[in-house]
Amino acid sequence: MTAPDGFWLSVDPGKTTGLATAHPGSDEPSAWEMPLEGALDWAWDWMSAYCGRGDVTVVCESYVIGPATLRKGGAGGTWSLRGLGALEWMARRNGHRFVEQRPAEAKAFGTDAKLRALGWWSPSDHARDALRHLLLARVADGEEGLAAAVLG
């Protein structure tokens, strides 16, 4: 496995937010979860630290308001949407590339078996979802060593 060429932040935004980071010099990403407000503060600090670099990518789970969201009612169903908007603004403000991915696409590609095989497993559902998005984005970006490891 190879370390990434650039700096990566992957976020599964929601009331409980999953985060994952990867950077040059480290073969394994870090992943954890925290409440949205703390995650946004942390993400702003992280993105600001790399402001203006051309090798930073922020990956977020996309969010669509559907019938289930509307049934939840109130602000409870919009945590993800609010987090996604804030993260996109932060990334663009700091000059970073911003990528959105559909949850189903990341889950289908970044299976539990692949995460375990890579040594990327996390017991946290939200952190694991952030890792799924990180994996999909890095392979889609053309990281050959990572692609070979998961695609054979």
How many individual helices?
7
SSE string, helix = H, strand = E?
A: EEEHEHHEHHHH
Q: Residue share in helices?
A: 40-55%
Number of domains: 1
Largest sheet: 5 strands, mixed
Strand order, sheet with most strands: 3-2-1-4-5
Spans of at least 5 consecutive residues with low confidence: none
CATH topology name? Nucleotidyltransferase, domain 5
Q: Structural class per helix/strand content?
A: alpha/beta
The first-to-last residue Cα distance is 12 Å
State the CATH class. Alpha Beta
CATH architecture: 2-Layer Sandwich
Shape: globular
E-strand count: 5
Keywords:
Nucleotidyltransferase, domain 5, 152 residues, alpha/beta, 48% helix, 7 helices, globular
Descriptive report:
- By secondary structure, the chain is of the alpha/beta class.
- It has one domain: 2-Layer Sandwich (Nucleotidyltransferase, domain 5), CATH 3.30.420.
- 48% of the residues lie in helices and 20% in strands.
- A five-stranded mixed sheet has the order 3-2-1-4-5, with helices on both faces.
- β2 and β3 form a beta hairpin.
- α4 crosses α6.
- It is globular and about 40 Å long.
- The chain starts with 6 loop residues before the first strand and ends with a helix.
- The model has no long low-confidence stretch (mean pLDDT 91).
